[in-house]
Amino acid sequence: MKTASNKVLVAKVAKNINYNKMLFHCWTGCSTVMYKQDICNKWYGPSVSSCNDYALFLKVLKHIKNGMGYSECLVKYRVRKNSLSRNKLKKIKPYFFVMRKIEKINVFLTCFYIFTNITIKLFWKYRKIKKEISK
Questions:
Q1: Residue 97 maps to a domain
Q2: Nearest-CA neighbor of 97 among 33, 63, 52?
Q3: What number of CA atoms fall less than 13 Å from residue 27's CA on the CB side?
Q4: 16 exposed, middle or buried (CB, 10 Å; 0-12, 13-18, 19+)?
Q5: Stated pTM of the model
Q6: Residues contacting 76, CB < 8 A, separation 6+
Q7: Does 3 reside within a domain?
Q8: Distance, CA of 119 to CA of 111 (rounded, Å)
Q9: Are the beta carbons of 48 and 55 closer than 8 angstroms?
Q10: DSSP three-state, residue 17
Q11: Would 46 be classed as within a structural domain?
Q12: Is 10 within a domain?
């Protein structure tokens, strides 16, 4: 039986985020968003298999215009090999649904955003592998 390593990774925080920036990539983690409910009302994410948090963040950013990063660690979570969000190819379909049906973005622009999102993820993965090799 393998034990999970207790490796703590520090996430990079986007200093300033807006709706247009969020369309290119989900710059926030699932449990890392806070907003003042008494000022902005209470919002719920739509029922989408693995992108409901992303759809909610887009909805919030449409109304508040800008979000800010906060670099203090407020949450820790476990990364699992078989989690829903681990397989990026399986996330393309719900991501496409969010862009087309919820955000009402045309097909060509949606494909562009998906391509950009995948490119950013691959770039980060490549940088992480390169750093591990050089250590």
A1: yes
A2: 52
A3: 20
A4: exposed
A5: 0.74
A6: 8
A7: no
A8: 12
A9: yes
A10: strand
A11: yes
A12: no
**What is the span of the domain harbouring residue 108?**
16-134
Number of domains within the chain: 1
Per-residue pLDDT tens over the stretch 47-91: 777 788 888 888 888 888 888 877 777 777 676 777 666 666 777
In this prediction, residue 108 carries a pLDDT of: 96
Question: Quick check: 1 pLDDT over 50?
Answer: no
For 22, phi and psi rounded to 5 degrees? -70, -25
Q: Which of 9, 23, 21 is nearest to 69 (CA)?
A: 21
pLDDT score for 3: 46
- Cβ burial of 105 (10 Å; 0-12, 13-18, 19+) is middle
Cβ contacts of residue 66 below 8 Å, gap of 6+?
16, 17, 18
Please tell me the predicted confidence (pLDDT) of residue 80: 72
